Amino acid sequence: MAHAKLAASRAYLLVAYYAQAHEMLFDAHARAFAVFGGVPRRGIYDNMKTAVDKVGKGKARNVNARFHAMTGHYLFESDFCNVASGWEKGQVEKNVQDRRRHIWREAGERRWTDLDELNTWLRQVCVDSWQELAHPEWGELTVADVWQQERGHLMALPKPFDGYVEQPARVTTTALIHFQRNRYSVPCEWVNAVVSLRAYASKLRLIGPGGAAVELTRSFDRDQTFYDWQHYIGLLERKPGALRNGAPFKEMPGPLQELQRQLLKNPGGDRVMAQVLSAVPLHGVEAVVVAAELALQAGRGSGEHVLNTLARLKESPVRVTDINTPLKLQTPPVANTARYDGLRRTGVMA
Questions:
Q1: Starting from the edge strand earliest in sequence, which strands make up the sheet with 165-170, in order?
Q2: Of 328, 250, 311, nearest to 275 (Cα)?
Q3: In this structure, which of 128, 199, 219, 331 has its CB flanked by the most CB atoms within 10 Å?
Q4: What predicted TM-score, i.e. pTM, was given to this entire model?
Q5: Taking the CB of residue 74, how many other CB atoms lie within 10 A of it?
Q6: Can you give the pLDDT at residue 83?
Q7: For residue 39, how far is the Cα from the chain centroid?
Q8: pLDDT less than 70: residues of the chain
Q9: Strand, helix or coil at 204?
Q10: Exposure string (b/e) for 128-139, b if CB count within 10 Å is 16 or more?
Q11: C-alpha distances out from residue 104 to 1, 28, 91, 107, 109, Å
């Protein structure tokens, strides 16, 4: 749990994370500065490992390079407490104790679908409490009242710091990378390459050969494998048989799985399905899924029908150009096919 608190107004923010690491620290600063409406000129910290690599004598500190880069981005000064002197940042320590009685009692009685839902609620309940809490020094004012004054003295808020921790990762022969006891798929063209893995608080960003980038949702479970079936489309051009037992393709949308099931009943169905999936990079997965649904509804589960349907969906509509003219039609034409019968009664033979 990250606790950030302004010294003058006592405005505070709580942010929950699954772990305590550099990228969580950077994300907490970005969230706090956004809520506070600016950046203070000085930050007081404990000697946490995410900020200090080594504690020296007195105030001497070997500050972590990425933490130093963050303070340089926001242009504020960092000040670290003396060893075993947590009271030097007593406002934060008291805030931890007060919020256990105030916020966490209510949070413990509720259930949350994910961490984003919890943090959205935490942000709102923290900001709402500013209106209710009296300021400890000026009792006639609330925390929100003093924050309105303090905000004018904060430094301007720049764009958020790109808070990631970078490390190299080698792609396996099955187009997977390993990170914190989990496996994530990457484009199959990156097999055996060494890529740059940038870990953020809630996502992973991989920079591959040629500067191509892929973003993945970060998981804090253990010993899990997360596939993206679109990463393996290029493999099907060489090995269409991978569709039959390929674990990544079990994650395809329902219409594509049903189309695959019907096509694989026939000889050469894997090659036809590979042709359908090869249209995803060109037309997008949503368009291909819609084309597959229409083909299945029509009872024509064939690759040709899907590709023809996809081509019709992508056809640009005919644009009708309005022509401005001073001429006006006095008698509009009437659709009357009976007029052609008059030609038959003339008796004129060609």
A1: 165-170, 194-199, 203-207, 213-217
A2: 311
A3: 199
A4: 0.78
A5: 19
A6: 76
A7: 25
A8: 84-101, 300-301, 315-320, 345-350
A9: strand
A10: ebbeeeebeeee
A11: 11, 18, 18, 5, 9
Domains and CATH numbers, the chain: 2-151 (3.30.420.10), 165-226 (no CATH), 234-314 (no CATH)
Give residue 118's pLDDT.
Answer: 93
DSSP string computed for 52-90: EEEE-STT-EEE-HHHHHHHHHHT-EEEEPPTT-GGGGH
Confidence at residue 287, expressed as pLDDT on a 0 to 100 scale: 87
pLDDT at position 350? 46
What residues contact 148, with CB distance under 8 A and at least 6 apart?
A: none
Distance of CA 321 to the CA centre of its chain: 41
Q: Which DSSP category does 231 fall into?
A: G
- Cα separation, 299 vs 294, in Å, equals 9
Asked if 311 and 338 touch (Cβ cutoff 8 Å), the reply is no
206 class by beta-carbon count within 10 Å (0-12 exposed, 13-18 middle, 19+ buried): buried
Q: How far apart are CA 172 and CA 194, in angstroms?
A: 10
Q: How many CB atoms lie within 10 A of CB 273?
A: 24
Place of tokens 């981005």: 73
| Contact call for residues 205 and 198 (beta carbons, < 8 A) | yes
Q: Report angle CA 273, 274, 280 to the nearest 5 degrees.
A: 100
Beta strands in the chain (DSSP E): 2-5, 12-15, 42-45, 52-55, 61-63, 77-80, 165-170, 176-179, 182-185, 194-199, 203-207, 213-217, 225-226
Centroid of chain to Cα 185: 16
DSSP H stretches of helix in 153-210: none
| Confidence (pLDDT) at 326 | 80
